[in-house]
Amino acid sequence: MGFFAASGLLLLLLPVALLATAGEGAGKRAPPHRILVDTDVDTDDLFAILYLLKHDRAEFDVQAITINTNSWTDAGHAGNQLYDLLYMMGRDDIAVGVGGEGGISDDGRMYPDIGGYFPIIDQEMSTVGGCRYRQSIPQGGGGRLDINANYGVRRAFLPQGKRSYSPLQQPTTQQVMIDTISAGPTNVFLIGTHTNFALFLMNNPHLKENVKHIYIMGGGVRSRNPTGCCLKNDTLCVPRQCGDHGNMFTTYTKNPYAEFNIFGDPFGAYQVFHSGIPVTLVPLDATNTIPITEAFFKAFEEQQSTYEAQYSFQSLKITRDTWFDDQFYASYFMWDSFMSGVALSIIRNGQKPNGENDFAEMELMNITVVTSNEPYGVHDGSNPFFDGHASPKFNLLEGGVHSGHVQTGLDDSFCVLKGSIKGKCQDGYTKEMEGPDSVAVLVAVKAKPNRNVKSPLDREFFENFLEVLNRPEHTGQFNFTNQFPRYKEIMYKPDFKHQIKGKPVIFDMDMSPGDFVALMCLLKAPLAAIDLRGILVSGNGWANPATVDIIYDVLHMMGRDDIPVGLGNITALRSPDLGCEYVKAIPHGSGGFLDTDTLFGLARVLPRSPRSEIWCS
Question: Which positions fall inside the Inosine/uridine-preferring nucleoside hydrolase domain (predicted)?
Answer without folding.
Answer: 35-373
